[in-house]
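Support reply, case 0932

Customer input (verbatim):
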Amino acid sequence: MTQRSAGRKIYAHAKLRRLRRERGMNQIDMARALKISSSYANQIEQGQRPLTASVLRAIAEVFGVDTEYFSDADEDRLATDLKAALADEACGAPPLDAEEIGEAARDHPEVARALVALHHRYRDTAEQAAALAGPHPHSGRLLPPSEPHDEVRDFFYAHHNHFESLDAEAERLSRSLEVQPSRASEALRLRLHARHGIRVVQAAPSPPNSGSGDARRFDPDAGLLFLSPWLSEGQRAFQLATQLALLEHGAILTQLTERTDELTSTESAALARIGLANYFAGAFVMPYTMFHDAAERVRYDIELLSARFGVGFETICHRLSTLQRPQQRGVPFSFLRVDRAGNISKRQSATDFHFSRLGGTCPLWTVYEAFSAPGRVLTQVAEMPDGKRYFWVARTITRGGFGHHAPRAEFAVALGCELRHAQRLVYAEGVALDDSRAATPIGLGCRICERRDCAQRARPPAGSRLAIDPDRRAYVPYPVEGRPR
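Our regenerated output:
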């Protein structure tokens, strides 16, 4: 049981009701299995009684779920999604109280998810109509209902960025091949040749200023796998493991991409398969138990882990965000990658932290400050409008750059966790974690942010009336009526 669970009452009515129905049980059957009275079972499902520790353990045993199943992280994320949907101008309704939204997500999660899905479809349709109305190179054909990359990000987000079946298979293979950290490429090369008759060759380098060339290219007819000569040892192993996942674990990839509601097109499913193959590669190069133990030992020092496993800063951050194996959990991190314009190209989360799809993210977030200090690791204690605090680590990374004229891409990556986990991180040393004055107030994006006294605001908050006064010039952009938060 988590620290949060231990310190609060757990009302599990909606989740327990769903578990019971999925097992084809009525309340009497469930009460008998849990060895509690029928009236108590009914009161739990009605939200009138919380779960005791003994009943929680019984539920975990009878239904085969981890106690983390009843964490409020999913409810918090759903509530934030619902709040963003209801804040859209298209709703035409005054903003609802945060407590009412939270109750809807907790008591009627399926209805809340349906509303969120409906809002996503509306936004996608509106964008499609706007694209078709204006000049577009493919104006004669309909656009897909949503962006495949967005659907894939939502797919990983819905799974808390953890796929145990892939982790287990990757760890088993790494152990059987007796792979040493940062020395995996040779074992993978031999495996591909022995099992699949594939020969790994180094591709001819492209001209530095051509902007072309592939990190990995597989020719199944010739049985050749071409790898870029610019790859490091860790990058070579990652690409080889990705190809191996596509060849040997296609059944798992298909199962994961078919049994989901997030992927609605063939393009989304194909992209998700690649993402899952990359997940397998990371799990092979950084096997779960070995990586988890090393991370705990060095207090999640990203640069030390990078040296140990032979991969880059971003790859380590991404792997740290996947350590959610029951009974062997790491710090539950959120991970994202952004560019200077604020575009989020990667977002994964094992926490209730929400990455807004509406109106951009908060410019006060340390991930954007990282661009002003290239290569330095920056930290931040950030407080959300609901009072929750998170600890963030951010740094810039550069991709490409082989040759003076070669194109380069610069991003900032950030790794964050709830503040209660921060003392486990080396980066929190010397930071006043308990001092509220050290926290930076941020939001999920100006459109749905409740802070009315923010000098950085770019848009007025949804559902608020502007306070227009010609005799007053406020320092806060878009002043609104009512008391500031």
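We compared this against your earlier run and they match. Two observations from our side: Residues 149 and 210 are 26 Å apart (CA to CA). Residues 1-7, 135-145 have pLDDT under 50 and may be disordered. Please reopen the case if you see a mismatch on your end.
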